């Protein structure tokens, strides 16, 4: 018996010695790597609790509850520099608004960073193994499927979008030109994008929208809120037990699956023909419709892969485009002089039917859109996790100019919202709405409204075309936008940035 106890104790001691040795060897190897590259530790956010980061977490939650999380980030960077670390849940996070650090993470050292298990686990109930949650070969394969489909989705005469915008303007008229446009933008963008993605609009803009359409709309909202909550919980994600969240994810998946089945049937019917001869159906007006999902089905017959991709596309397209449109009208309603210049620019270049070339000629409108994307980037904060020990050329030291060692599994969180408001890049009035700055402004990595590097948003041209077209049609139809809400904007920060207080306004039609 005594011998057995001695043996167990020896084995336990050997086990502990082995693991302590591994930790010490890992620490030494990382120390040598950092020393070899001349790395210096970055600045640290002062914390009362440096291990679990309870004080930081409570600060974040409190600021978010008061619609001020982004302002909190901005103040932290002003006090602690462009790059600093925080410790939460026994995990180190590198916070940055330095374009050189961001470029290294997103492009120059792309293969050293990925989404990481935290992001995958938080988003997988809704997004599955879609393009926004995967890494490596799986992500590359999915990107290879999506890019050609978006490349073919090029507007020319905008026939489908024209009909859809007519319906959008009709809804405004039926509401006597007074409503919350953000709610309408979300419904409108979901309608138009389900048309392009599936070949069939969900029909949310109809006064008698079906129960299934409304259910999907609310399910998307709730599932997205649950996803961002899971991400904020981090390592405590296991505590998230919400039956409504699970049901909302199932509702979204079921809706997408119906169209996946149709796309696979399209694939089966055309399987005997060369792919280039597969034709999309024509709508009741005789226009041949481009169906994104059918383009994907030309490349794969995996129903789960197809479903996950279109769910990712639905969320990305709806929230970013609707947010861009909402912030644009929100600001134009508060700056009547900018609206007047925008409208004059649109009318000078307007034609029927509205073409892509005509939109490109609307220079001031482009400045307005760029200024909105600067002040209110669709993805205000983002992150990547190191998948190996690596060194970034900048970000270390008190001034952030020394090389920075990033250990495996450490997270780099970057804020485009903060970076886009840096005065050294955008002038002393960087916090102000002034589209004219884009007349001479030239930017690179300090302006990233659609991300950068290999993961740059594949649908950015589509989103910009849709948003620009919509604002141009509104400028043609309405001579004035009157704000019915004089409060400052309040952030609604989920997977993307929108307005918590909506866009309440009255539109004055041009009867000439």
TrEMBL record:
The chain crosses the membrane at residues 6-27. GO terms for molecular function: heme binding; iron ion binding; oxidoreductase activity, acting on paired donors, with incorporation or reduction of molecular oxygen, reduced flavin or flavoprotein as one donor, and incorporation of one atom of oxygen. The keyword Ubl conjugation does not apply. It is found in: Membrane. InterPro entries: Cyt_P450 (IPR001128), Cyt_P450_CS (IPR017972), Cyt_P450_E_CYP52_ascomycetes (IPR002974), Cyt_P450_E_CYP52_fungi (IPR047146), Cyt_P450_sf (IPR036396). CDD domains: CYP52. Its cofactor is heme. One of its GO terms (cellular component) is membrane. Keywords: Heme, Iron, Membrane, Metal-binding, Monooxygenase, Oxidoreductase, Transmembrane, Transmembrane helix. Belongs to the cytochrome P450 family. This is Cytochrome P450 alkane hydroxylase. It comes from Clonostachys solani. The lineage of its organism: Eukaryota, Fungi, Dikarya, Ascomycota, Pezizomycotina.
């Amino acid at each position: 018996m005594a011998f057995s106890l001695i043996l167990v104790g020896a084995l336990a001691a050997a086990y502990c010695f082995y693991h302590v040795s591994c930790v010490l060897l890992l620490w030494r190897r990382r120390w040598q790597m950092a020393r070899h590259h001349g790395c210096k530790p970055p600045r640290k956010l002062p914390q009362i609790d440096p291990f679990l980061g309870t004080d930081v977490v409570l600060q974040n939650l409190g600021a978010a509850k008061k619609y001020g999380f982004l302002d909190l980030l901005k103040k932290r960077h002003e006090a602690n520099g462009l790059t600093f670390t925080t410790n939460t849940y026994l995990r180190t996070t590198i916070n940055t608004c330095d374009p050189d650090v961001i470029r290294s993470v997103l492009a120059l050292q792309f293969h050293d960073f990925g989404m990481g298990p935290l992001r995958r686990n938080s988003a997988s109930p809704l997004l599955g193994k879609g393009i926004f949650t995967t890494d490596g070969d799986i992500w590359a394969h999915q990107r290879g499927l999506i890019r050609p489909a978006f490349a073919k989705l090029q507007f020319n005469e905008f026939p489908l979008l024209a009909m859809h915008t007519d319906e959008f303007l009709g809804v405004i008229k039926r509401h006597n030109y007074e409503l919350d446009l953000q709610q309408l933008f979300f419904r409108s963008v979901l309608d138009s994008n389900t048309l392009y993605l599936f070949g069939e609009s969900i029909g949310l803009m109809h006064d008698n929208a079906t129960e299934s359409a409304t259910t999907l709309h609310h399910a998307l909202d709730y599932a997205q809120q649950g996803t961002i909550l899971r991400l904020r919980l981090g390592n405590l994600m296991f505590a998230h037990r919400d039956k409504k969240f699970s049901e909302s994810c199932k509702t979204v998946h079921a809706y997408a699956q119906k169209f996946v089945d149709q796309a696979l049937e399209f694939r089966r019917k055309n399987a005997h023909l060369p792919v280039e001869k597969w034709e999309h159906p024509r709508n009741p007006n005789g226009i041949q419709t481009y169906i994104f999902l059918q383009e994907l089905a030309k490349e794969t017959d995996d129903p789960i892969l197809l479903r996950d991709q279109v769910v990712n596309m639905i969320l990305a397209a709806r929230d970013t485009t609707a947010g861009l449109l909402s912030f644009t009208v929100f600001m134009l309603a508060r700056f009547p002089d900018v609206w007047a210049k925008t409208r004059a620019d649109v009318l000078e270049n307007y034609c029927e039917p509205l073409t892509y070339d005509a939109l490109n000629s609307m220079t001031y409108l482009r400045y307005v859109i760029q200024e909105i994307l600067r002040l209110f980037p669709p993805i205000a904060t983002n992150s990547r996790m190191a998948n190996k020990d690596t060194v970034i050329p900048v970000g270390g030291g008190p001034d952030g100019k020394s090389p920075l060692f990033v250990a495996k599994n450490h997270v780099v969180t970057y804020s485009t919202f903060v970076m886009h408001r840096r005065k050294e890049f955008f002038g002393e009035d960087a916090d102000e709405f002034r589209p004219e700055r884009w007349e001479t402004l030239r930017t690179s990595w300090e302006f990233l409204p659609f991300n950068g590097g290999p993961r740059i948003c594949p649908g950015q041209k589509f989103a910009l075309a849709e948003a620009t077209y919509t604002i141009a049609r509104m400028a043609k139809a309405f001579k004035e936008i009157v704000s019915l809400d004089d409060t400052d904007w309040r952030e609604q920060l989920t997977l993307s940035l929108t307005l918590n207080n909506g866009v309440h306004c009255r539109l004055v039609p041009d009867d000439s």
